[in-house]
User: What shape does this take?
Amino acid sequence: MNTGLAAVIGRARFLLVDFDGPVCKVFANHPAPQVAATLRRLLVDQGVTVPPDLLDEPDPLAVLRWSATLNRPAIVRQVDDALRTAELDAVTVAEPTPYAREVIVAAHHAQRGITIVSNNSADAVNRYLIAQQLDAYINPVIGRPHADPAGMKPNPAPVIAAICELRAHPEDCVLIGDSPTDIEAAQAVGVPAIGYANKPRKYHSLSRSDAIISSMAEVVAALSDRRVQGGRPASHGD
Assistant: This one.
């Protein structure tokens, strides 16, 4: 057993889980570079000159973030709307992360609350959860703030929103994410963070995590101990 992971999970009454990575690979069958190219074409169609360093950017979220530097809110809304449409299509063929379902079900059985905190659109997250029959286990879903890229992680605002909706305290929670932005957002407000290093190269970038895992199966094992160290079991009525 990963002792660091066991300690962090043992104290947590609520699991805050990033979506793209820990739950599924959103763009596995709807490639992200194609989506990013679509967003760039939208910008060009609006008369925007795309800088050279963005021409080969494979991450559509990076294109959305850059669009906000134009100080043209209407264009940011168009880019965000186009990305949301692409995400809604992508999640219909997304690749589930191994053991993600088991983590969600195990958290439910261990009486831990579980929520999604994502830079993807909430509509796309909800579509995936409904299709996978996981929506009943998860509440709330905190997605990307519309047309406000600055509000995405690493901004801690989405994590704060989740804590508030759960009526929890930061020390009651743990966030599982596969990006440094997840770790930064969580730790900025005192929430312990578990880095999901699903690729060996991610270990270094997630080194500031309170614990690091290479498989979501490790979380399932940690959740098999239903005790909450130093506290009481989670109750959705709190």
